[in-house]
Write a structure and sequence with these properties.
Radius of gyration: 18 Å
Number of domains: 1
Distance between the termini: 61 Å
Structural class: alpha+beta
Strand content: 35-45%
Shape: elongated
Number of helices: 2
Strand order of the largest sheet: 1-4-5-2-3
Length: 97
């Protein structure tokens, strides 16, 4: 009986991992051995609330324009989520010249 409770608790923890709060950053590049960041940084975000309303432009082009970047050298994606995704913000970060 105790083994079943332990397994149920473990499955619950794994299934809900990051449900209350998540803040992660992921690379969008695949060529890590040649990564150069550049001197400028640009950001663009899109948000969603209550799974019903979404707005913003988190595209690479918008991020480059916001940072005054004409040559993109590297890009990252940041994801911030709160309370099972009731509020989520996705940001594209580009680096370059």
């Amino acid at each position: 009986m105790k083994k079943h409770i332990f397994i149920a608790m473990l499955v619950s923890i794994i299934a809900c991992s990051g449900c209350a709060f998540t803040q992660i950053q992921l690379p969008l590049d695949k060529n890590f051995d040649n990564t150069q960041l550049g001197l400028k940084e640009g950001r663009a975000s899109a948000q969603t609330v209550l799974f019903l309303i979404a707005w913003g432009d988190s595209g690479t082009k918008a991020a480059a324009e916001n940072g005054g970047i004409t040559v993109i050298k590297h890009a990252d994606r940041e994801i911030y989520s709160f309370l099972f995704g009731l509020f989520t913000r996705v940001t594209t970060v580009v680096y370059g010249e």
